[in-house]
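Re: that backbone. Tokens:
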């Protein structure tokens, strides 16, 4: 058993000798006998977080702290995509499987990068507006000769692993609501399990398990209750409904679980991390009261039924978009002299949690970042001790961390050899929360129920209410923490000038790999944090790296491509505009002549006349913020992943009404907004964009 050996290694600090024995043994996930092959080896990468434990740790040592500077390019593959690459590639039987924006899947020869097949689920691109945070995809699942992908439009699709041909497809969501799938499916106990996103726009989140061979639904876990008048699906929902007030079901309630999922095959429990409320504001969602189960929680589900075994809510009555969808991982730790089977998570809210994964008992919860919304987690109740001004209603509360969280989706890794969790964190400034006056649910736009960005004129809560940040981190925009989950302190820390850096991989070669949003791919010594290798690949690396071995040679692979929520809202640390994505693969003795990816040049600007009327521009600014900014960036300044409207060909403005109100560019992902905007409103948006173009030319 891999887990046991890792555990002993962690206890005794026995160095890689016992880990080396693992090469060639079956990983835990293959034990139910229906894995892709009986010969599945530990030197492959078979599921999202490497194995069921999802620690993203590899026992391989060929590439190590002594020779990592000999890494060069084995091969690279241009993904022909220009939006975010967030995926974890999987490797099995000499093939590497990865995904790109709009949920397409490609299979390459893992030795050479040669294309074996390429599958496009043909998503209707006009639904891209439903994706809060770019049309990204974080990867596939592999099982029994099949590749599973969740398409952004809500389909779960099984492909033949050899040919890429579709075997079955099932619709997992109600497409009349703004659900999306960006996360990787997991296969557990013969079932393929998938969640979804959409809480920003208004959904009722759920996680559903399907028979891996047929696609037939096995069970569904609703994260939040529906309208009690319709009856409850099961006693879990009846219990959860006691923590809700008002008419939460009208917007949906939220809780969408769009990323994290792990499995303990001995306990037969599936653990999921759940999302924020829909809308964000508890005032609007639940009459300002109640814990609102199972929002922002870690929930353990029985694998046979999908029913709740236990839950722990990290942010009761969420008001701040503090999802607990961040990566979960399991290991064994010795706490107070006792071996505990634990689950670990660093959700958005800034506390690092260690729970007993069999009972759900809270073992520790300490801040890993600066935060102002709570002064700690009560040892008695297990609940946060909120500060007086954390919640908001009709006055602005400036709260840290904001909706970006102190840690977002970028996966952490854990090395049993160092006992450290390698955690990519970010430290934003305080975020202004205030309830949107006269809020009403409207389809086709964000429904978070707060005023986004325009709160300057609103009353503010007194600053004296704030407590200083309590995290141990110096407030740099981004940092990699080597977090000790026993002492709850970072053993070392790397500060970055930008937020949104990549997920991490740690190895028994005493290495941690991480990419950065300004286009670097770096290896650190896992024990000391010493930088050992650093290359410039040109585009942002936000995806987590993987490693695998073929013919006795160890490789490191990582996807590079800028996108995601930050990109859409208008910041690009690498300074690139529409740069093509790439899958890079490195090996010892590879090509050291690394040519960074270059983006497109922005066209020269010519003046286009516009209506300088203040009222028109103000209207256009508001409507742009409501309908367009989520893809085209605040103030029309796109963050380099998609079209910067200010640079559009002047002729484009002549057909502006056709594009916005008739869907002329629907095939490219620009939805038809005809049902939401009249001609004058669309024109005010056009005048606003043109004014921003004029600003650029000043
Ligand atoms: Ca959210």
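Recovered sequence:
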């Amino acid at each position: 058993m891999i887990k046991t050996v890792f555990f002993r290694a962690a206890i005794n600090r026995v160095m890689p000798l016992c880990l080396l024995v693992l090469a060639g043994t079956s990983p835990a996930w293959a034990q139910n006998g229906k894995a892709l092959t009986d010969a599945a080896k530990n030197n492959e990468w078979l599921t999202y977080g490497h194995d069921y434990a999802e620690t993203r740790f590899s026992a391989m040592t060929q590439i190590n702290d002594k020779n990592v500077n000999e890494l060069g390019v084995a091969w690279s593959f241009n993904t022909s995509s220009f939006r975010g690459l967030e995926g974890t590639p999987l490797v099995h039987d000499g093939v590497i499987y990865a995904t790109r924006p709009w949920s397409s899947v490609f299979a390459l020869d893992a030795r050479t990068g040669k294309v074996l097949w390429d599958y496009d689920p043909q998503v209707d691109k006009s639904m891209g507006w439903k994706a809060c945070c770019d049309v990204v995809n974080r990867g596939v699942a592999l099982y029994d000769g099949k590749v599973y992908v969740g398409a952004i439009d809500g389909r779960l699709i099984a492909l033949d692993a050899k040919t890429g041909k579709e075997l079955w497809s099932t619709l997992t969501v109600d497409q009349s609501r703004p659900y999306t799938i960006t996360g990787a499916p997991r296969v557990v106990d013969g079932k393929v399990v998938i969640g979804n996103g959409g809480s920003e726009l208004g959904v009722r989140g759920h996680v559903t398990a399907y028979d891996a061979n047929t696609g037939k639904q096995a069970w569904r876990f609703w994260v939040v209750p529906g309208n009690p008048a319709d009856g409850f699906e099961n006693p879990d929902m009846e219990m959860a409904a006691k923590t809700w007030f008002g008419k939460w079901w009208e917007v949906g309630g939220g809780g969408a679980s769009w990323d994290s999922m792990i499995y303990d095959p001995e306990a037969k429990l599936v653990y999921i991390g759940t999302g924020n409320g829909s809308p964000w504001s508890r005032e609007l969602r639940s009459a300002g009261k109640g814990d609102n189960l199972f929002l922002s929680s870690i929930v353990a589900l029985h694998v046979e039924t999908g029913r709740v075994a236990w839950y722990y809510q990290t942010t009761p009555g969420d008001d701040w978009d503090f999802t607990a969808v961040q990566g979960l991982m399991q290991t064994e730790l010795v706490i107070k002299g006792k071996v505990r089977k634990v689950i670990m998570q660093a959700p958005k809210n800034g506390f690092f949690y260690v729970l007993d994964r069999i009972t759900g008992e809270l073992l520790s919860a300490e801040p890993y970042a600066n935060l102002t919304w709570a002064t700690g987690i009560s040892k008695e109740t297990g609940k946060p001790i909120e500060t007086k001004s954390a919640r908001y209603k009709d006055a602005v509360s400036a709260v840290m961390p904001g909706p970006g969280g102190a840690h977002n989706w970028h996966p952490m890794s854990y090395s049993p050899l160092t006992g450290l969790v390698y955690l990519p964190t970010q430290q934003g400034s305080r975020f202004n929360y205030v309830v949107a006056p006269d809020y009403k649910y409207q389809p086709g736009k964000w429904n978070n129920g707060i005023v986004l960005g325009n709160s300057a004129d609103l009353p503010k809560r007194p600053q004296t209410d704030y407590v200083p940040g309590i995290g141990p981190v110096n407030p740099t925009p981004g940092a990699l923490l080597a977090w000790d989950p026993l002492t709850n302190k970072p053993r070392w820390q790397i500060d970055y000038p930008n937020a949104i850096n990549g997920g991490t991989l740690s190895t028994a070669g005493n290495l941690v790999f991480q990419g950065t949003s300004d286009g670097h791919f770096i290896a650190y010594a896992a024990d000391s944090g010493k930088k050992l290798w650093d290359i410039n690949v040109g585009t942002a690396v936000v995806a987590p790296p993987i490693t695998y071995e073929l013919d006795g040679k160890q490789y490191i692979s990582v996807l590079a491509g800028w996108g995601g929520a930050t990109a859409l809202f208008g910041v690009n640390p690498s300074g690139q505009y529409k740069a093509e994505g790439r899958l890079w693969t490195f090996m010892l003795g590879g090509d050291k002549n690394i040519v960074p990816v270059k983006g497109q040049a922005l066209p020269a600007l010519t003046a286009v006349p516009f209506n300088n009327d203040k009222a028109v521009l103000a209207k256009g600014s508001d409507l742009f913020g409501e309908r367009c900014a989520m893809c085209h960036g605040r103030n029309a300044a796109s963050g380099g992943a998609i079209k910067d409207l200010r640079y559009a060909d002047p002729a484009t403005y002549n057909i502006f009404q056709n594009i916005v109100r008739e869907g002329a560019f629907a095939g490219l992902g620009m939805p038809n907004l005809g049902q939401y905007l009249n001609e004058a409103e669309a024109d005010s948006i056009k005048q606003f964009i043109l004014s921003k173009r004029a600003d650029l030319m000043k």
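Residues 1-41 have pLDDT under 50 and may be disordered. Residues 11-39+124-133+146-524 form a domain with the Methanol Dehydrogenase; Chain A fold (CATH 2.140.10.10).
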